[in-house]
UniProtKB/TrEMBL annotation:
One example of a Gene Ontology biological process annotation: D-amino acid catabolic process
Protein name: D-amino-acid oxidase
Thylakoid found in the keyword field: no
Keywords: FAD, Flavoprotein, Oxidoreductase
InterPro entries cross-referenced by the UniProt entry: DAO, FAD-dep_OxRdtase
Residue ranges with Acidic residues bias: 211-226
Uppermost EC category: oxidoreductase
Entry's Gene Ontology cellular component terms: cytoplasm
Annotated Gene3D superfamilies: D-Amino Acid Oxidase, subunit A, domain 2 (3.30.9.10), NAD(P)-binding Rossmann-like Domain (3.40.50.720)
Length: 354
């Protein structure tokens, strides 16, 4: 079948990749490249942040975790064989250990079941203040570039333009997949459940060498008073029940993403200096090493929130002018990366069932 996928974020690219691998002729249509989507700002750790709790979502979570663990295994095998750590054909995904700190009573451990189901009982164990686990860390936006290359290798074509009407796509597609994030509901005629969830982050350098001019020179921690530098961080930490706001420190290879916020209904895409200062203060308590890391930049993304995740075929009577089947794949909120591969597999099932 000829399938048009709307959206070039992590959901759209994952769906396009799996549809092409399933033998379909796939075209991605989007007005922004992957690097300009909210996906590029994702931290991104496989973890169901504020994800809907349902059997369907649980299945999607498990399938995504399994795929990311497989990609991390491929990257590890390639590195062990002497390949460069980051190349076009090696997925930038690593298994990283960290701690989920808990404050609520009882704590929300719904995320544990899919982890144990996929990675085994030894992947999770209690520690002082929370739970320690080893999960896939996805190196965005390098991962998006790898995913786009993987799509092209699979035969996916790209067209860079803004879709104003689904009906305009009917002449060149046998089915349409709407993975347009916040625009998903708009393209389907209006979805009052879709709302932005503003997230702000600060990106830090992941360590620096002693006396690095961009580092925190003047810290008298060394024997001679010189700055001793900071080794790159590898362990991650989350404290999403923090009373002053969700808090996380997620190290990539060359940077550390610290956050964050979850401002429901806010369309403000400008970073707030006051919010950034508060984020950094919370992060320094969670992981003290972050207090001396140089700031690389600030980011704001509008997550596509929805009361429930929508991955389903749209009732044709709701879109009488389109003329071809339409599949919705949006409303992932703060778990877009986490749910991406499971969403793609479900979309393939829906297309195959047409």
């Amino acid at each position: 079948m000829r399938i048009t996928v709307i959206g070039a974020g992590v959901i759209g690219l994952s769906c396009a990749h799996d549809l092409a691998e399933d033998g379909h002729e796939v075209t991605v249509v989007a007005d922004h490249g992957p690097g300009d989507t909210v996906s590029a700002l994702s931290a991104a750790l496989w973890f169901p942040f504020a994800a809907e709790k349902s059997p369907t979502v649980d299945r999607i979570l498990e399938r995504s975790l399994a795929r990311f663990a497989e990609l991390a295994g491929q990257a590890s095998d390639a590195e062990g064989a002497g390949a460069d750590q980051v190349t076009d054909d090696i997925p930038p995904v690593e298994m990283r250990t960290g701690t989920v700190f808990e404050r609520a009573t009882p704590p929300d451990r719904s995320w544990v079941d899919p982890v144990v189901a996929v990675l085994g009982q030894d992947a999770v164990h209690p520690v002082d203040g929370g739970m320690e686990t080893t999960l896939p860390m996805i190196m965005m936006p390098t991962y998006l570039a790898w995913l786009m290359d993987s799509c092209r290798i699979a035969g996916v074509r790209f067209r860079w333009e803004k879709v104003e009407s689904l009906a305009a796509l009917a002449d060149t597609a046998d089915a349409v997949v709407v993975a347009g994030g916040l625009r998903g509901g708009e393209l389907l005629g209006g979805d009052e459940e879709v709302t932005p969830i503003r997230g702000q982050v600060v990106v830090l350098a992941n360590g620096y060498e002693a006396d690095d001019e961009d580092g925190a020179d003047g810290e008298e921690d060394g024997e001679d008073g010189a700055d001793p530098g900071v080794a790159p961080l590898t362990r991650w930490a989350t404290d999403n029940d923090h009373p002053d706001g969700e808090t996380y420190v997620l190290p990539r290879v060359d940077s550390v993403v610290v956050g964050g916020t979850a401002d429901v209904g806010s369309w403000d895409e400008e970073p707030s200096a006051e919010t950034a200062e508060a984020i950094l203060a919370r992060a320094a308590v969670l992981v003290p090493e972050t207090a001396t890391l140089p700031i690389l930049g600030h980011g704001v993304g509008l997550r596509p929130g929805r009361t429930t995740l929508r991955v389903e075929q749209v009732d044709p009577t709701d879109l009488p002018s389109v003329g071809v089947p339409v599949i919705a794949a949006y409303g992932h909120g703060g778990s877009g990366v986490t749910l991406s591969w499971g969403t793609a597999e479900r979309v393939v099932e829906l297309v195959d069932g047409l």
